[in-house]
């Protein structure tokens, strides 16, 4: 399966610095978005540590299947699923270790949304409220479930998705890298069809745009991943750009 992609990150209209990070390793078919949290630029440090560590472990296991697995193997998922899951847990350890090095790093954390593609199978791993979407036949489907306070309220019927986007506690995540040693990583497998598009994004996009609005911008791009990615960032900024915005757009073809 051929993959075309475009990755864009933008500071937005309200923030002075960009605490989001992204990573693309086309050789390994690895795509990662991370949204850092923490004062004194520590959020930027956390997100950069995370994406670098994920890439490091994926590269190591791509070259050597006999490498030691620090957390053992999960027999319920594939080899590539284990590569990605372990890479995210490895990144969590790196962030936790860094928090002990400098006082200004204390409490820093980051979300992660990552895709590792093998043929026509996409392994999805995520922690936090950065998202992965599928766009197929002009329809958009969220493939990840936010680990956030507002999502818990949506599930409980307390607020609507529209209310969640503007809720004062919309940035409160309930799970993140840097939180604790025993990190739970949500893993999914998606079977890819020709023409499918995957969108990885930080919440700087999704707090500004409803899913249908995102789908509309992508549809207008007519399969052009660069036009879609840049259009999404521009649209989020046009709606206020209240947070950093990071987008990785993938399109799959035979």
Protein architecture, described:
The chain is an alpha+beta fold. The protein has a single domain (about 1-145, about 175-254), classed as PPM-type phosphatase domain (Phosphatase 2c, domain 1, 4-Layer Sandwich), CATH 3.60.40.10. Helix content is about 35%, strand content about 25%. It has seven helices and eleven strands. α1 (about 40-65) packs antiparallel against α2 (about 80-100). The termini are close together.
Properties at a glance:
alpha+beta; five-stranded antiparallel β-sheet; globular; six-stranded antiparallel β-sheet; Phosphatase 2c, domain 1; 254 residues
In short:
This protein has 254 residues and is α+β, with helices and mostly antiparallel strands. Helix content is 33%, strand content 27%.
Count helical runs: 7
Annotation, overall tally of beta strands: 11
Give the fraction of residues assigned to helices: 25-40%
- Counted up, domains total 1
**What composes the largest sheet?**
6 strands, antiparallel
Q: So, the CATH homologous superfamily?
A: PPM-type phosphatase domain
Indicate the CATH topology: Phosphatase 2c, domain 1
> Class, according to the CATH hierarchy?
Alpha Beta
Structural class: alpha+beta
Ranges where pLDDT stays below 50 over 5 or more residues in a row are none
Q: Span between N and C termini?
A: 5 Å
| Mean pLDDT across every amino acid position | 94
Q: Could you say what the CATH architecture is?
A: 4-Layer Sandwich
Question: What are the secondary-structure elements, in order, as H or E?
Answer: EEEHHEEEEEHHEEHHHE
